[in-house]
Specification:
With about 250 residues, the chain is α/β, with parallel strands linked by helices. The protein has a single domain (about 15-245), classed as Metallo-dependent phosphatases (Purple Acid Phosphatase, chain A, domain 2, 4-Layer Sandwich), CATH 3.60.21.10. It contains five helices and eleven strands. The strands form two sheets. A six-stranded mixed β-sheet has the order 5-6-7-8-10-9, with helices on one face. α5 links the parallel β7 and β8 (about 205-210). α2 (about 55-65) packs parallel to α3 (about 85-95). The longest helix is centred in the middle third of the chain and has 25 residues, at about 135-160. The radius of gyration is 17 Å and the shape is globular. The two termini are about 30 Å apart. The structure holds fe (ii) ion (2 copies). One fe (ii) ion (FE2) binds next to loops.
Protein backbone atom coordinates (compact mmCIF):
# COMPACT_ATOMS: atom_id res chain seq x y z
CA UNK A 1 0.00 0.00 0.00
CA UNK A 2 1.50 3.36 -0.96
CA UNK A 3 1.72 6.11 1.64
CA UNK A 4 -0.07 9.41 1.11
CA UNK A 5 2.43 12.31 1.09
CA UNK A 6 1.73 14.74 3.90
CA UNK A 7 2.86 18.25 4.67
CA UNK A 8 4.22 18.03 8.19
CA UNK A 9 4.89 21.55 9.36
CA UNK A 10 4.59 25.26 8.51
CA UNK A 11 6.88 27.19 6.18
CA UNK A 12 10.62 27.09 6.72
CA UNK A 13 13.19 29.57 5.47
CA UNK A 14 16.12 28.28 3.45
CA UNK A 15 19.29 30.27 2.85
CA UNK A 16 20.94 29.37 -0.46
CA UNK A 17 24.61 30.17 -0.91
CA UNK A 18 27.08 28.97 -3.52
CA UNK A 19 30.54 29.53 -4.94
CA UNK A 20 32.32 30.42 -1.74
CA UNK A 21 35.65 29.47 -3.37
CA UNK A 22 37.44 29.38 -0.02
CA UNK A 23 41.16 29.76 -0.74
CA UNK A 24 44.20 28.42 1.11
CA UNK A 25 45.12 31.69 2.73
CA UNK A 26 41.65 32.84 3.75
CA UNK A 27 41.23 33.81 7.40
CA UNK A 28 37.69 33.18 8.65
CA UNK A 29 36.22 34.34 5.32
CA UNK A 30 32.61 33.41 6.11
CA UNK A 31 32.35 33.16 9.88
CA UNK A 32 30.31 36.34 10.31
CA UNK A 33 28.11 35.52 7.31
CA UNK A 34 27.31 32.03 8.65
CA UNK A 35 26.41 33.50 12.00
CA UNK A 36 24.06 35.97 10.29
CA UNK A 37 22.47 33.22 8.21
CA UNK A 38 21.94 31.10 11.31
CA UNK A 39 19.87 33.90 12.79
CA UNK A 40 17.74 34.43 9.66
CA UNK A 41 17.14 30.95 8.22
CA UNK A 42 16.14 27.45 9.32
CA UNK A 43 18.42 25.57 6.89
CA UNK A 44 21.54 26.56 4.93
CA UNK A 45 21.92 25.05 1.44
CA UNK A 46 25.46 25.24 0.04
CA UNK A 47 25.47 25.04 -3.76
CA UNK A 48 28.99 23.86 -4.58
CA UNK A 49 32.38 25.41 -5.37
CA UNK A 50 32.82 25.54 -1.63
CA UNK A 51 36.60 25.53 -2.09
CA UNK A 52 38.65 27.24 -4.77
CA UNK A 53 40.82 24.31 -5.87
CA UNK A 54 39.43 21.37 -3.94
CA UNK A 55 42.34 21.31 -1.48
CA UNK A 56 41.74 19.72 1.93
CA UNK A 57 43.18 22.75 3.72
CA UNK A 58 40.61 24.98 2.02
CA UNK A 59 37.87 22.67 3.31
CA UNK A 60 39.34 22.86 6.82
CA UNK A 61 39.12 26.66 6.72
CA UNK A 62 35.47 26.43 5.67
CA UNK A 63 34.71 23.75 8.26
CA UNK A 64 36.05 26.02 11.00
CA UNK A 65 33.81 28.89 9.89
CA UNK A 66 30.77 26.60 9.68
CA UNK A 67 30.96 26.16 13.44
CA UNK A 68 29.40 29.64 13.63
CA UNK A 69 26.30 28.35 11.81
CA UNK A 70 23.74 27.03 14.28
CA UNK A 71 21.28 25.57 11.76
CA UNK A 72 21.34 22.36 9.65
CA UNK A 73 23.62 22.63 6.61
CA UNK A 74 23.05 20.62 3.42
CA UNK A 75 25.40 20.77 0.43
CA UNK A 76 26.58 19.55 -2.93
CA UNK A 77 30.09 19.85 -4.31
CA UNK A 78 30.97 21.91 -7.39
CA UNK A 79 33.48 21.45 -10.17
CA UNK A 80 36.13 23.46 -8.30
CA UNK A 81 35.86 21.07 -5.35
CA UNK A 82 37.03 18.26 -7.65
CA UNK A 83 39.93 20.11 -9.27
CA UNK A 84 42.74 18.62 -7.15
CA UNK A 85 41.44 15.05 -7.06
CA UNK A 86 40.65 15.25 -3.32
CA UNK A 87 36.87 15.52 -3.55
CA UNK A 88 36.30 12.70 -1.04
CA UNK A 89 38.65 14.31 1.47
CA UNK A 90 36.95 17.71 1.06
CA UNK A 91 33.60 16.04 1.59
CA UNK A 92 34.78 14.15 4.70
CA UNK A 93 36.20 17.27 6.32
CA UNK A 94 32.91 19.10 5.82
CA UNK A 95 30.86 16.08 6.95
CA UNK A 96 32.80 16.11 10.21
CA UNK A 97 31.76 19.74 10.60
CA UNK A 98 28.13 18.60 10.41
CA UNK A 99 27.38 19.16 6.71
CA UNK A 100 24.99 16.67 5.05
CA UNK A 101 25.90 15.95 1.42
CA UNK A 102 22.75 15.42 -0.57
CA UNK A 103 24.19 12.99 -3.08
CA UNK A 104 24.87 10.69 -0.09
CA UNK A 105 21.53 11.07 1.64
CA UNK A 106 18.25 12.86 1.07
CA UNK A 107 17.09 14.09 4.49
CA UNK A 108 13.84 15.58 5.67
CA UNK A 109 14.33 18.70 7.74
CA UNK A 110 11.32 20.32 9.42
CA UNK A 111 9.08 18.32 7.06
CA UNK A 112 10.86 19.43 3.86
CA UNK A 113 12.67 16.86 1.76
CA UNK A 114 16.09 17.88 0.41
CA UNK A 115 17.55 16.22 -2.70
CA UNK A 116 20.69 17.30 -4.49
CA UNK A 117 23.48 16.46 -6.89
CA UNK A 118 26.30 18.43 -8.41
CA UNK A 119 24.72 18.15 -11.84
CA UNK A 120 26.66 18.65 -15.04
CA UNK A 121 26.86 20.58 -18.28
CA UNK A 122 25.31 19.92 -21.70
CA UNK A 123 23.10 22.86 -22.51
CA UNK A 124 19.44 23.66 -22.64
CA UNK A 125 16.21 22.93 -24.48
CA UNK A 126 16.32 21.91 -28.11
CA UNK A 127 20.06 22.78 -28.22
CA UNK A 128 20.99 20.33 -25.45
CA UNK A 129 23.89 18.07 -26.43
CA UNK A 130 22.86 14.56 -27.59
CA UNK A 131 24.87 11.33 -27.16
CA UNK A 132 25.72 11.08 -30.86
CA UNK A 133 29.00 10.40 -32.64
CA UNK A 134 32.33 10.13 -30.85
CA UNK A 135 32.70 8.13 -27.63
CA UNK A 136 33.97 11.28 -25.92
CA UNK A 137 30.68 13.05 -26.63
CA UNK A 138 28.74 10.03 -25.37
CA UNK A 139 30.75 9.98 -22.13
CA UNK A 140 30.11 13.69 -21.67
CA UNK A 141 26.35 13.30 -22.14
CA UNK A 142 26.26 10.16 -19.99
CA UNK A 143 27.71 12.16 -17.09
CA UNK A 144 24.77 14.57 -17.28
CA UNK A 145 22.29 11.70 -17.59
CA UNK A 146 23.80 9.90 -14.58
CA UNK A 147 23.49 13.04 -12.43
CA UNK A 148 19.84 13.43 -13.47
CA UNK A 149 19.14 9.75 -12.64
CA UNK A 150 20.73 10.17 -9.22
CA UNK A 151 18.52 13.20 -8.57
CA UNK A 152 15.45 11.33 -9.80
CA UNK A 153 16.07 8.45 -7.37
CA UNK A 154 16.37 10.83 -4.42
CA UNK A 155 13.24 12.76 -5.39
CA UNK A 156 11.29 9.56 -5.98
CA UNK A 157 12.13 8.31 -2.48
CA UNK A 158 11.38 11.62 -0.77
CA UNK A 159 8.10 12.09 -2.66
CA UNK A 160 6.70 8.98 -0.91
CA UNK A 161 6.99 10.85 2.37
CA UNK A 162 6.49 14.57 1.76
CA UNK A 163 4.99 16.87 -0.85
CA UNK A 164 7.44 19.65 0.00
CA UNK A 165 10.65 19.02 -1.91
CA UNK A 166 13.68 21.25 -2.37
CA UNK A 167 16.53 20.62 -4.82
CA UNK A 168 20.14 21.79 -4.40
CA UNK A 169 22.51 21.72 -7.39
CA UNK A 170 25.74 23.27 -8.56
CA UNK A 171 24.89 23.40 -12.26
CA UNK A 172 21.75 25.17 -13.45
CA UNK A 173 18.59 23.28 -14.50
CA UNK A 174 17.35 26.19 -16.65
CA UNK A 175 18.73 28.66 -19.13
CA UNK A 176 16.92 31.48 -17.28
CA UNK A 177 19.49 31.81 -14.51
CA UNK A 178 22.60 31.61 -16.71
CA UNK A 179 21.46 34.65 -18.70
CA UNK A 180 24.03 37.38 -18.14
CA UNK A 181 26.94 35.02 -18.77
CA UNK A 182 28.46 35.04 -22.29
CA UNK A 183 26.12 32.90 -24.48
CA UNK A 184 29.16 30.94 -25.71
CA UNK A 185 29.50 29.27 -22.28
CA UNK A 186 25.82 28.63 -21.47
CA UNK A 187 26.11 24.91 -22.46
CA UNK A 188 28.83 24.52 -19.80
CA UNK A 189 26.75 26.05 -17.03
CA UNK A 190 23.96 23.49 -16.76
CA UNK A 191 21.59 21.07 -18.38
CA UNK A 192 17.87 20.88 -19.07
CA UNK A 193 18.08 17.21 -18.12
CA UNK A 194 18.10 18.38 -14.49
CA UNK A 195 15.06 20.58 -15.10
CA UNK A 196 13.15 17.78 -16.82
CA UNK A 197 13.75 15.54 -13.79
CA UNK A 198 12.70 18.24 -11.32
CA UNK A 199 9.48 18.85 -13.25
CA UNK A 200 8.25 15.33 -12.56
CA UNK A 201 8.05 15.93 -8.79
CA UNK A 202 6.38 18.42 -6.39
CA UNK A 203 9.51 20.54 -6.05
CA UNK A 204 8.92 23.91 -4.38
CA UNK A 205 12.30 25.54 -5.04
CA UNK A 206 15.67 24.86 -6.66
CA UNK A 207 18.96 26.39 -5.51
CA UNK A 208 22.10 26.28 -7.64
CA UNK A 209 25.41 28.07 -8.22
CA UNK A 210 28.20 28.00 -10.83
CA UNK A 211 26.92 30.86 -13.03
CA UNK A 212 28.74 33.71 -11.26
CA UNK A 213 27.49 36.32 -13.70
CA UNK A 214 24.04 34.85 -14.24
CA UNK A 215 20.56 35.93 -13.15
CA UNK A 216 19.17 35.41 -9.64
CA UNK A 217 15.74 33.99 -10.44
CA UNK A 218 14.24 31.80 -13.14
CA UNK A 219 11.90 28.85 -13.60
CA UNK A 220 11.99 25.34 -14.96
CA UNK A 221 9.82 24.51 -17.96
CA UNK A 222 6.85 23.68 -15.70
CA UNK A 223 7.35 26.76 -13.54
CA UNK A 224 9.33 25.59 -10.50
CA UNK A 225 11.19 28.61 -9.03
CA UNK A 226 14.97 28.44 -9.50
CA UNK A 227 17.45 30.59 -7.56
CA UNK A 228 21.03 31.16 -8.73
CA UNK A 229 22.84 31.47 -5.40
CA UNK A 230 26.36 31.99 -6.77
CA UNK A 231 27.94 34.45 -4.38
CA UNK A 232 28.59 37.28 -6.88
CA UNK A 233 25.02 37.25 -8.27
CA UNK A 234 23.01 40.16 -6.81
CA UNK A 235 20.11 38.91 -4.69
CA UNK A 236 16.78 40.61 -3.95
CA UNK A 237 17.61 41.00 -0.26
CA UNK A 238 20.92 42.77 -0.93
CA UNK A 239 22.86 39.97 0.81
CA UNK A 240 25.17 37.37 -0.81
CA UNK A 241 22.68 34.55 -0.11
CA UNK A 242 19.09 33.83 -1.17
CA UNK A 243 16.38 33.60 1.48
CA UNK A 244 13.39 31.54 0.38
CA UNK A 245 10.45 30.20 2.39
CA UNK A 246 8.82 26.92 1.36
FE1 LIG B 1 32.12 28.94 -8.92
FE1 LIG C 1 31.42 25.97 -10.66
Amino acid sequence: MSQTPVTVAGPITIAGLGDLHVADRSVHPYRDLFQEIGERADVLALCGDLTNLGRPHEAEILAEDLRACRIPVVAVLGNHDLESGHGDEVRNILCQAGVTFLDDEAPQIHGVGFAGVKGFAGGFGARMLSPFGEDAIKHFVNEAVAEAFHLENALHTLAQETDRLVVVLHYSPTVDTVAGEPPEIWPFLGSSRLGETIDRFPVKAVFHGHAHHGTFTGRTQSGVPVYNCALPVPKENGRPYALVSV
